[in-house]
Automatic annotation (TrEMBL):
It comes from the Bacteria. Its main location: cytoplasm. It is found in: Cytoplasm. Keywords: Cytoplasm, Phosphotransferase system. One of its GO terms (biological process) is phosphoenolpyruvate-dependent sugar phosphotransferase system. Pfam families: PTS-HPr (PF00381). SUPFAM superfamilies: HPr-like (SSF55594). The lineage of its organism: Bacteria, Bacillati, Bacillota, Clostridia, Peptostreptococcales. InterPro entries: HPr (IPR050399), HPr-like (IPR000032), HPr-like_sf (IPR035895), PTS_HPr_Ser_P_site (IPR002114). This is PTS system, phosphocarrier protein.
Length: 86
């Protein structure tokens, strides 16, 4: 299962939202990855997410494979679309 989403919050995916994203991804059993700018990283790795350097308006794809893949993708897309509460 996968979904495309654009970063909404003005400061992009900096440390605090990246931490929230990784924490949320870690709640799921599925393998969760983020694809952006031609790179694929583990959504449960703070260093991986930070290495993408995503800013406002950048598009990414959230991909999950496993028993709770739909819930994982939906929860992470919702977090991004909500602007991480910023």
């Amino acid at each position: 299962m996968e979904k495309n989403v654009n970063i909404k919050n003005a400061s992009g995916l900096h440390a605090r939202p990246a931490g929230m994203f990784v924490k949320k991804a870690a709640e799921f059993k599925s393998i969760v990855e983020v694809i952006a700018k031609g790179k694929t990283v583990n959504a449960k790795s703070i260093m991986g997410i930070m290495s993408l350097g995503l800013g406002q308006g950048d598009e990414l794809t959230v991909v999950a494979k496993g028993e709770d893949e739909e819930a994982a993708v939906n929860a992470l897309v919702e977090l991004i679309e909500g602007g991480f509460g910023e």
